[in-house]
Design goal:
Layout (H helix, E strand, L loop, with lengths): L12 H18 L6 H31 L8 H34 L32
């Protein structure tokens, strides 16, 4: 128990994450090989299905937790810390849903999203795109 809250219900999430890990491995094995487009789409379809299920389950669990939460019973410092944790979880879930949607668009509808609009890392929110500066080659004689 943390903040006096019950532990979350994991349910099917560990199974979905394990299945997603296997599908990522399959995607890596198949990618770049001739006539692999159909196999890749099948793997991505399964991966996105599991990702949606996990994200929806986590969102449901977060909503359940927030409904049973009595913030006013916590000391102000703990209340502030808990609110920051909850905000971070909400932000992470929003990022996950954005990634799921643009991967779906990329794989199944061939829509490319500009790199500046992508979530570059779900683990590191400060990850940023660095544009390389092209310069004229220097020729030494």
């Amino acid at each position: 128990m943390w903040f006096g809250l019950e532990d979350s219900q994991q349910g099917w999430i560990p199974r979905w994450l394990k299945e997603m890990d296997k599908l990522v491995f399959q995607i890596c094995l198949v990618a770049g090989k001739g006539k692999s487009n159909g196999k890749l789409k099948k793997c991505y379809r399964g991966f996105l299905r599991c990702g949606r299920k996990a994200a929806n389950a986590l969102t449901t669990e977060l909503n359940r937790l927030e409904q049973g939460l009595l913030m006013e019973t916590l000391p102000p410092s703990r209340r502030l810390l808990l609110q920051r944790v909850l905000d971070q979880i909400k932000s992470d879930l929003a990022d996950v849903n954005r990634v799921i949607e643009y991967v779906n668009d990329w794989v199944f509808h061939d829509k490319k999203l500009p790199l500046t609009e992508k979530v570059l890392s779900l683990l590191d929110g400060s990850a940023a795109y660095t544009k390389k500066v092209s310069r004229a080659p220097v020729i030494w004689i």
